[in-house]
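Quick look at the format.
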Amino acid sequence: MNGQGALGAAKRLCALALAFALAACASTTTTGIRIKERDFQALERAMASHIDVLASEEFAGRRPGTDGERKTLDYMRGEMERAGLVSGTNDPAHPWFAPVKLASVTGGSSEIEFVKGRRKVKLDPAQAAAFTDRRRGLLEGGELLFVGFEGERVPDDMIRGRVVVMLSEPGISPGRRAQLRRAEPAAVLTVVGDAATIAELRDSRSRERLVLEEDGPDGLDLFVTDEAMSAALGEKAWLALLEEAVEGQAGEGFTPRVLDQRINIDARSNRREVPSHNFIARLPGTDSSAGAILLLAHWDHFGTCGPEDAADRLCNGAVDNASGIALMMELAKRLKRGKPLVRDVYVLGTTAEEWGLLGARAFAEEPPIPLESFVAAFNFDTVAIGPRGSPVGFIGQGMTPLDPFVLQAIADAKREVAPSELTEPFLQRQDGWALLQRDVPAILLSNAFGDAARFEAFLEGDYHQASDEPGEIELGGSVDDLLLHELLIRRLADPKVYP
């Protein structure tokens, strides 16, 4: 979460203190949502029906920019319009569907050259690769900054405009690259172990990926083997840098070093436009000036993504994330059928979550109302995992003023909070993160994290595979989640309870 400095932190602390006091008052007069068994089962059947449609062969895996997208958006509009919701785009030219400009990037080639005076060392393509999401990324005479194993502790002004050279660490490098990228370097160069890693990276980048069409300055990513770095800088100089980095990692102090070499980079890719859309509906409240609550779930999946020799290559995306869309739509219907809410409720179906929260990021850039108008946001992702009565995973706990209301609602629903160890790794891997970074109070509450064994079995089995398809899907925990959110949203939609 990027925050807004000391003033923003102080405001959040004050809001959190006020929220705890108000929640204590509200809890004396509200209890959990009561529902008859037949109505509970009816919700399970309704969600299963949505999943059967959205994850059907006809919808072809819901890949952005395809006929599957059009069918998905039309289905969601039909469901929400019949329920009495209206378009939430606030754009008469684009009702219901807010355009999101994506680009498809595949393949490419690159040349990397180190320069010191008149000496030039051109790296072997088997030992080095550069990638860009643009058609061409070109850098001449880039200044090199060696940061070793460092990331966020390196001053931004030292990174900005330079080619940052970092050493790879399994499981840590992606996050460190993202940290460095935020300081706007000319490129990030990651030193990897061997040529096999370069080959794997080239193979991965040869497959289509989606990016936002207008996604800031060109981000050059370089990967160079240890052997190639030694050849380019000289074995003695490179070993000295490695020794400094290791000593720094051991706590003996490390100072980033500007190298006496320069680097030339020429990276190319194949790129085409992919028009896509976010789905936005609105349940009007009695006072639109009182702020709004946001429900969101990503509608997209991968389309055809199985191995070329597989009998079934279609990744239907039943649990991930037809189940989240199903829960969100049925929740919106219950909110519409019940007592009118004071605040508006927006229903957002995001595109291209699977490629880096792209739809959520686009929404945050161009929201239908000012972002500060959203007093709370609830994300629904991969919800059909746990059975009825499962504990609740709470992603975003401790990061918004919503905590006391959430914890009280969980207690009133007679459920428990799942261990944070299960949820912490997923904070930045779900759409709510794109909103949290813009100071929108966004959280994810889900049964999926209530049973570590079940969740891990899904991740190791059907997750992002052709086997994630309709059938015998557990929905008891999903209905529990729906009712929990209904209870919580009815409280938060009242400015007298949650200013």
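Next, a different chain entirely:
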Amino acid sequence: MNRHLRRERSAPSSLLSRSWVCTASLAFLASCARTGGSMSKPPDADKTLFLGKVLTMDDDMTVAEAVLVDERGHILEVGTEQAVRDGLGAGAQVVQLAAGQVLMPGFIDPHLHLLPTLLQSVLESHNLAPCLPGPYRIPTATACESRADVLSTLASIQLSPEAPKDEFVLGMNLDPSRQVFDPLKCGITAKEAASAKSFMDNPKFYIERCVSKDRPVLILDQSGHLAYVNQKAIDVVCAGQAACPPASVEQGGGEWAPSNKATSFTGLLKETSGYAPFMAAMQKSLPLAQLQSHPQEVLEAYQKEIKPGIQAMRDAGLTTIADGGLVGRPQLNAVKFLAEQEHFPMRVTGVVTYDSAKTDDIQPTGPACDPRQDARCRLPKWLGAGGLKLWVDGSTQGCTAKLSAPYSYSTKGHCADAGDGRADFDNMQAIVTALSEQWMTKSWRVQLHANGNDANQWAIDAFALLQQKAQNQHPVLFIHNTVGLEQLSKNLGDLRKGTYRATNGQTAPAVQAHVTHLIGHVAYWGHAFRGMLGEEAANNLDPVGFDRDQGIPFSFHSDSMVTPPRPLWFVEQAVTRRTWAYPSLQESGTLGLEKHAATVEEALRAITIEPARQHELDAWVGSIEQGKVADFVVLGDNPLDYGPTKKDPTLIHKIPVVETYLNGKPTSKNP
């Protein structure tokens, strides 16, 4: 980073007359004489002037030439170079962009999971994620080609011979929706494979053959909505339990998939509550697993290992991230602890699960100080936690998205038995009941995870009823909104306008509804969704065109660990709508390009000002405007120069990130 940026002292915007220079020099010498000869601070030495092409991302998409920032990181002026330089003292520091570079607001990822993302850096060979397509390939120590199929991937887990027999084996990011299933691996015979059926039918059998039968094994799916275990792990969890699975599994909307045998399980676990008992049991034998109960201690113990993950986000141009599902006060405090470290290079806002907010009596918070109210305030990196998170359904690629006509899972392939998927609640009214108490306070931003079209309709209907109870003026966020349908988006648009008729027959007051799409669904899973959901549903993934038609503001996110947090990749993927076939990783055309392709301008807004508005951060970040804070990214090329009739948009991911700034200070100076 920091390539070709020049720092210098400010110079006047035009040539000065000799008489003016002489007069100024005499005045300066007289000043020195009055202070006993000591040198006074040059005028405006506490200010920084950024010069070059500035994409402000304001409502008018203004392109400026200069930005002036004070020592607290407050933006004082934005405009032409001449106008901003006018009256500026010679002591100001100048950051001059090189030819071709642009200054933008720092990128924002509005939905990821920070702690699991950093955990990937620690697991190394136990990170089982499949390859990314060529344009987005991230070098790893392990050849990702060896992870093309499920069983070879499981067999790649390296077990320490010195480890105790009761110590859990933890793997993460297995993805059977993209990693093909070849049953004749790990010494499995054709007869055994025929009896065991597919991996999703009987993961327990395949884990025992490919990883271990003697040690408890827990494998987390990349979606975060599924997990897989062997019998030893089930025995550990069920030991001493009056009933198994524990009641908490069903209460949280989870499931242990039953086998044909009574009181036996296949090893497939659904939803977080389904695998939470295994995470709890694992903490007794594997310190790393204490990420759930003692996350701050884990972060402190693995500082060296997690640092590359943090730097990778900075190197992608991120200056603000939203952690979209913190479970209770321990995780909330851990992320706050991380953000407040001196050299942490990003701001963080937290979103807390609705049930843990009740259990731990968590109230919404903001940053410790506000530059709008206090001129001395340097905006903190920890922005507080003002959002609530609730899951309506599961994962589209995990076969647990809640679908309805005209969509359903195919009866062949990866999700053959999934039907219409599943929801985490019995019905829409149960969502209303779950959120009512917190909604009535009118103090929370509420964010609902909904992938399937039916899950999104439930969310619309729930918000319509809640808004009749109490009019909440905070933004509500539909996270993912993956499987698109034109009527669904119309309903969502009507909810925004205050014209939607709720299920009780009443018209709901307007809800400030926004959408954020996991645009990587198109690139990484689009081809697979053709087979799982059908061509129409695949073409309507992340339906930007429907959003546009209905005036629904949208952003793009990574949902990391699900996809890498790389905002320029989001831009390219939204503009090109390209998809790849697994395991060959051959490009497999485009999905819904004519209807749902974003313009580059729309996509840039979806990683800057729109996510800032969704999290009510737009008073400080998201655009470069007077009164906001100087969180910037410098790019080596202008993304607006790319598009169907301009530079090749499939090369947007190659635009270099030169530097990021927080409060006007370069983050590359942090060790």
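The domain at 115-293 is CATH 3.10.310.70 (Diaminopimelate Epimerase; Chain A, domain 1).

See the schema section for token definitions.
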